[in-house]
Each structure stands twice: as structure tokens, then as C-alpha cells.
């Protein structure tokens, strides 16, 4: 049986495209670090944001105003970039709500501007649909959430 050269080339192209799609995008690990933590609680906001070194680069104080943690495993969050999510412009919204903890930067007075690493956060728990930007099937940016 003779194998045609074009069939071999087609097979190689398919293998490369499948393996490229299976590799996480560069922003995926940062997305996980900043937004996915199944054991997160409202009491852990301050400690987790400091431990994970979540900062707002290119700002005067370095403190991120708000950070949302999704209380789920990475498999369920990644599925939003596939069948568990619905396209919404260049992003995807989850079909089901997720429990989240929203950590907000605390300011004593309106004119107080804490600076990194002295940022203090307080959290609230909620259930929301998440909106993420995906690249090649991998979540890379937490865009927003929608109250259910």
C-alpha cells in the first residue's frame, strides 16, 4: 500500500494544530494566579492578594482597586471558553453562575491612597456569571461578572 506525500503532510498539519490548541496560552497561568482559587474566603482577601503578588502595574500606588476570585477548579473555568460559555462580543459569558469572592481595596478616607505593599482588602461573597476573554480556548483575562 502506497502512502501519498500529500496525505502525510495533511496528517502532520493536523497533529501540529491539535497540539498547539492543547497548549495553554501565556496569559493563562497569570489568569489562574489572579482569579481562580476554590478555597478562597472573604477573610483571605488581604493575605491572598499579597501572597500572589497581585498588583496594578503602571499606577501611582500599585494597589489593584478590585480583584475577583472564582471559587471553582480550573477545568470548570476553562470550560467557559468552550461549551460552558456563550459568546459575548470578543469575550465569553458563563452559562452557569459561579461563586466568587470580590476583594476591594480599602481606603480610610477618600484622599487616602495606600501604596503597595501596604494595600488592604476586604471581601464579599456572591454568585455571578463570569465574563472572560479567551485565546485559543484558554481564559486569559477576567473581564467582568454579571449578578444573577
Mean pLDDT equals 84
H/E series = HHHEHEEEEE
Structural class: alpha+beta
Q: What is the rounded Rg?
A: 20 Å
Low-confidence runs: 6-20
Name the CATH architecture.
Roll
Q: Tell me, what's the shape?
A: globular
Instruction: State the major sheet.
Output: 6 strands, antiparallel
| CATH level 4 superfamily | Ribonuclease A-like domain
CATH topology: P-30 Protein
Q: Termini distance?
A: 60 Å
Q: Report the helical percentage.
A: 25-40%
Portion of residues in beta strands equals 25-35%
Structural domain count: 1
Strand runs, count: 6
Counting H and I runs of at least 4 residues, what is the number of helices? 4
**Mind telling me the CATH class?**
Alpha Beta
GO molecular function, one term: endonuclease activity
Signal peptide: 1-22
Subcellular location: Secreted
Pfam family, one: RnaseA
Topology:
Layout: H1 5-22, H2 26-35, H3 45-51, E1 66-70, H4 74-78, E2 85-88, E3 91-94, E4 98-105, E5 121-135, E6 138-147
Antiparallel strand pairs: 1-4, 2-3, 3-5, 4-5, 5-6
Brief descriptors of the model:
148 residues; alpha+beta; P-30 Protein; six-stranded antiparallel sheet; 4 helices
What can you see in these coordinates?
The protein is α+β, with helices and mostly antiparallel strands. It is 27% helix and 31% strand. It is built from four helices and six strands, in the order αααβαβββββ. β5 and β6 form a beta hairpin. About 10% of the residues have low confidence. The protein has a single domain, classed as P-30 Protein, CATH 3.10.130.10. The termini are far apart.
Amino acid at each position: 500500500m502506497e502512502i501519498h506525500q500529500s496525505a502525510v503532510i495533511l496528517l502532520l498539519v493536523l497533529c501540529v494544530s491539535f497540539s498547539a490548541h492543547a497548549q495553554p496560552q501565556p496569559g493563562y497561568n497569570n489568569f489562574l494566579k489572579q482569579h481562580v482559587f476554590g478555597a478562597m474566603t472573604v477573610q483571605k482577601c488581604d493575605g491572598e492578594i499579597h501572597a500572589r503578588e497581585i498588583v496594578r502595574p503602571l499606577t501611582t500606588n500599585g494597589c489593584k482597586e478590585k480583584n475577583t476570585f472564582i471559587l471553582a477548579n480550573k477545568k470548570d473555568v476553562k470550560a467557559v471558553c468552550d461549551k460552558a460559555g456563550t459568546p459575548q462580543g470578543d469575550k465569553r459569558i458563563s452559562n452557569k453562575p459561579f461563586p466568587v469572592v470580590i476583594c476591594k481595596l480599602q481606603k480610610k478616607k477618600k484622599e487616602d491612597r495606600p501604596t503597595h505593599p501596604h494595600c488592604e482588602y476586604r471581601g464579599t461573597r456572591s454568585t455571578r456569571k463570569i465574563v472572560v476573554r479567551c485565546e485559543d480556548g484558554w481564559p486569559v483575562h477576567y473581564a467582568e461578572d454579571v449578578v444573577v
